[in-house]
Amino acid sequence: MVKRSLSQIAGPSALLAMLGLILSPVPATAHLVTTGMGPVYDGIGHFLLTPEDLVPVLALALYAGLRGTLPGRRILFLLPPAWFAGGAAGLAVDLAPGQLLPAVSFLVIGALVAADLRLPVAVLSALAILLGLIHGFCNGAALKAGSGMLGLLGIAIMLFVLVASVSAFVISLKREWTRIAVRVAGSWICASGLLMLGWMTKGQV
Amino acid sequence: MTRILPILFALLWFGLSCTGAAAHESQPGSMELRQLSRDRYEITWRAPIYFGRSHPARLEVPDRWQDVMPPTERMLPDSQVFRRVMSVGEAGVEGSLIRFPGLERTITDVFIRLHRLDGTIMTAVARPSKPYAQLRGERSWHVTARDYLGLGFHHILQGVDHLLFVLGLLLIVKGRMLLVRTVTAFTVAHSITLALATLGVANAPLPPLNAAIALSILFLGPEIVRSWRGETSLTIRYPWIVAFLFGLLHGFGFASGLSTTGMPKAEIPLSLLFFNVGVELGQLVFVFTAIALVRSFRILEVRWPRWVEAVPGYAVGSLGAFWAIQRTVILIGGMIL
């Protein structure tokens, strides 16, 4: 059983360096979604059509579902507010993340699902807050020119619905092979993260 | 069903405050081009009043089109009507692009109709996600179907009052079969009146209709509380009857989102069918999301404080009361003026 937190494993300075890299500013190339149904739905549309945000959230919900009801509830009530808070901060700045953020998110959370690691609930909660703050921050920066704060509200609502549905679905899976299927999905997400990192190294992203 | 309350309440509340759909501000606009002679057209652009102000979208026609007389503008209670007579030149209107700058910042759809001298009619829809339309020949049936399917879907998801009524029903209904029966009754009822209104058989003026729809929501508030207390009533025992009766009212409301004035007669049944399918799809998305959330909360063993569980029931009643008063005031104001 893994008892150490991420900061203990990697060291606080390594985590700070990683955060700095993830948030390193690049010209904003956000794609905004106009649904024609108001800013809340625009935010929901933006989230659903952005795999860089959607897939890590799905992966985290899968992982929470594998871990059980308590982790599921924690993610459910921590991720949306953290995302919203990060987004509100992001609305105030003019930078957009590089491609490292989705790649790292895919890799780390996908690996957690694939390995079915038994992280303590506190660590999982910290991971959810971190993911929410960073991705939310980037969303906020992207939505600044579009649906703004109301778009973030839409995203937070969508996150809540998605995390509740997916984690509850995984918890309801009783047969052993279904849990393996969830872990296989995690391995694909992890592999996608690796590929993205590889492309970045080759300068193709 | 009560476990779902906080989330659905939040969903509706944000939708209400953000889309403004609760006050039926999503009335469509319309633009009509009527051919007067070989190269001359009368253009009427009706921009609906948008949240109490002039609509932010404006009409932009191709540069080569020239006004042949001064444009006119008329202010109506529900819209602003701009009229122009233009010469479109030798090239005619075929292939011309009509733009609506500013439409992308709104939730308004615009129906465009071109009446030619030979009696043929072309229709198109511009919407915020595609604030332009190309005037080109007759449209294939699947393009029309797709447009009206999208319109219906948008209309129900923007109509917070309709969704709040469905939520009220969900809060009262106990049991899967009763739920199916209630949702089906609502669907059948509003399909009947939507069809009657669209085909011009029956008509309901908007101000009293909106007030009556608000009353239907208000009516559900006390019924929800009664249901929580374990009491019974006709609505609690037979919610499908209430769903059917009030569904008839809501159908007239849906019809306000589907303007068929001047539409080719052959196109009306198709547009009506797909508009209704779009409405049903939107309603099903809402109902299935609600059911999925209820199930998820049960599996995740989420325990809400009692006051949180009570909020949405009271919200249905309070918002129903608020809209009923607001719309009655508007109705009486309109009658006095």
Could you characterize what this model shows?
The complex is a heterodimer of chains A (about 200) and B (about 325). With about 200 residues, chain A is an all-alpha fold. Chain A is built from nine helices and no strands. Chain A has a domain of about 120 residues. The relative contact order of chain A is 0.20. Chain B folds into two domains: about 200 residues, no CATH class; about 110 residues, no CATH class. Helix content of chain B is about 50%, strand content about 15%. In chain B, α1 packs antiparallel against α3. The longest helix of chain B has about 30 residues. Chain B is elongated. Classes of the chains: A mainly alpha (about 200), B alpha+beta (about 325).
Short description:
The complex is a heterodimer of chains A (about 200) and B (about 325). Chain A is mainly α and about 200 residues long. Chain A has helices at about 5-10, 10-20, 40-50, 50-65, 70-90, 100-115, 120-145, 150-170, 175-200.
Radius of gyration of chain A: 16 Å
What would the average pLDDT of chain B be, to the nearest integer? 82
- Output the number of helix runs of chain B: 9
Amino- and carboxy-terminal Cα gap of chain B: 45 Å
Described by strand count, sense and barrel closure, the largest sheet of chain A is: none
Number of strands of chain B: 9
What keywords describe this structure?
heterodimer, A: about 200 residues, mainly alpha, 9 helices, disordered N terminus, B: about 325 residues, alpha+beta, 2 domains, 7-stranded mixed beta sheet, two-stranded antiparallel sheet, about 50% helix, about 15% strand, elongated
Topology:
The complex is a heterodimer of chains A (205) and B (337).
Chain A: H1 6-10, H2 12-22, H3 39-48, H4 51-67, H5 69-90, H6 100-115, H7 121-143, H8 148-172, H9 176-201
Chain B: H1 5-19, E1 29-37, E2 40-48, E3 66-67, E4 72-75, E5 79-87, E6 97-99, E7 110-115, E8 121-126, E9 132-134, H2 141-158, H3 160-172, H4 176-198, H5 206-228, H6 234-237, H7 239-255, H8 268-299, H9 306-336
Parallel strand pairs in B: 1-7
Antiparallel strand pairs in B: 1-2, 2-5, 3-5, 4-5, 6-9, 7-8
Helix pairs in contact in B: 1-3, 1-9, 2-8, 3-5, 3-8, 4-7, 4-8, 5-7, 5-9
